[in-house]
Task: structure prediction
Amino acid sequence: MKEKLQSIKDEALKAIEAADAPEKLNDVRVKFLGKKGELTAVLKSMKDVAPQERPKVGQLVNETRASIEKVLEESKKKMERAIREEKMKQEVIDVTLPAKKNMVGHRHPNTIALEEVERIFVGMGYEVVEGPEVEYDLYNFEKLNIPDGHPAKDEQDTFYINKDIVLRTQTSPVQARVMEQGKLPIRMIAPGRVFRSDEVDATHSPSFHQIEGLVIDKNISFADLKGTLEVFAKELFGPETKTKFRPHHFPFTEPSAEVDVTCFKCGGKGCRFCKGSGWIEILGCGMVHPHVLEMCGIDPEEYTGFAFGVGLERIALLKYEIDDMRLLYENDIRFLKQF
Result:
């Protein structure tokens, strides 16, 4: 029995010495010390040993087990240390290398312009309201005084989901929805994305953004509209900015006007930016049509109001002197990181 145990020990030590990976050391442990290992088999054969010899044989088995476990543990630690040292050599950090740049993004020019407009109007007591981009024809056209067959529908050629549902062509439907609620007075702006089936060029896109404003209260006049837009223009383009109102037509408003501001590049003297006129057109506006008030459940004899609308991209193009609207949507990092 002593010779057999010595043979098992010698075989185990030889296997440990030949192992070149932690997995192989584990295989050695299982083969010699596991539940079905060779030392366990010796213990199971103790019933064939004479009773007086069993204590001595048991002691020899335990000594053999202890010897094998000791060498296994030493080999394991030695192997792990060698693996760790090799890994550290491979993962060494060169502290003299330049650090990696953390590329941090920033707000899009449209977002910067929108936040500026919102800041101005919120400062004047307006509420920012949003609405659905997929809208009923009823809100997008009919409640804005554009009945079926009206020529204004041709000017706002849009994308139809079906005959009753469209992708909104303006954010005015949000104003109609707010007026319907009947919570007066109203002071709101409605920014958002709108859609028209335009060809893509330097000044047009099938998807763009608008900011529309609405005020409904008692005794609101065109003078209130002019004063509001003058304050807005001065806040956005500078305190020296002047405004000019030109008569126009919008189905939603009557009377209506287009608004120009003095060129903030030349101060109104005339330059390439304003095409020599000294003025730049920025938005359309007017007094809310009485029929629109009636359709939204508001008494036009008691309440009046004004509305205005401006293209967000137009503000961004003017403010940052960008000459092609497509640059805003091409996601060219070289362009966007200038803002």
Strands lie at 127-128, 134-136, 165-167, 186-195, 207-217, 243-250, 253-262, 279-288, 304-311. Residues 185 and 217 are 5 Å apart (CA to CA). Residues 54-90 form the longest helix (37 residues).
